[in-house]
Amino acid sequence: TMALTVVRTARSAVVKDGMDFSTALFTADGQQVAQGLTLPAHLGSMAPALEGVRRAFGDDVLPEDIFVINDPYEGGSHLPDIFVFKPIFVDRRLVGWSASIGHQLDVGGKTAGGNGCDATEIFQEGLRIPPLRLYAAGKPVDALFELIDRNVRVPRQVLGDVRSQVAACLTGER
To answer: Radius of gyration of the chain from Cα atoms?
Structure first.
């Protein structure tokens, strides 16, 4: 159901038609227990990204928070892969995480698409997002959405796909 949410709501052809995304569920301590039927190559990349979020925020996690990360030095894979994580609470106790990863159409940098094969440093590849709250207590962090909007060539598609990933995580939480 999480994967269907992305397919039905994504904006870019990379995510919607190419299905370069994945969804998953994790235990509270970061063990993957399920993955949607999309791109198996993402199987090993979500746990390190979730660990980056867990390391950055520890117990400072609220039921309506949603986190984002793409920085490979913090647990991400490569910059075009943006991860979204939603903590799942039952009776005020963290019991798991819903997760999505989407290969974004663009993340800025010197080459459209963020995959310049001649890049000599990560700064040429695009926007690096450390573990951050994308939503804090259920409200979007507008400054972060604006930052992404200003640093990608096709913000409608990128932010549409990120919102699609958020919708998938909300579906996973339910």
So the answer is: 15
Residue 146: φ, ψ to 5°: -65, -40
Long-range contacts of 37-43 (CB under 8 A, 24+ apart): 37/3, 38/3, 38/6, 42/81, 42/101
Q: Hey, what are 37's tokens?
A: 């039927």
Residues 6+ apart with CB under 8 A from 78: 70, 72, 114, 115, 125
Give the long-range contacts of residues 38-42, CB within 8 A, separation 24 or more: 38/3, 38/6, 42/81, 42/101
Q: Which two tokens stand for residue 64?
A: 């309506």
Q: How far is CA 57 from the centre of its chain?
A: 16
What sign does the dihedral 35-97-7-106 (CA atoms) show? negative
Give CA–CA dist 151/113, Å, rounded. 12
pLDDT, tens digit (0-9, with 9 covering 90-100), for 96-138: 999 999 999 999 999 887 677 888 999 999 999 999 999 999 9
The model's pTM is 0.96
Q: Are 74 and 52 in contact (CB under 8 A)?
A: yes
In 3D space, the residue among 126, 113, 111 whose CA is nearest the CA of residue 157 turns out to be 113
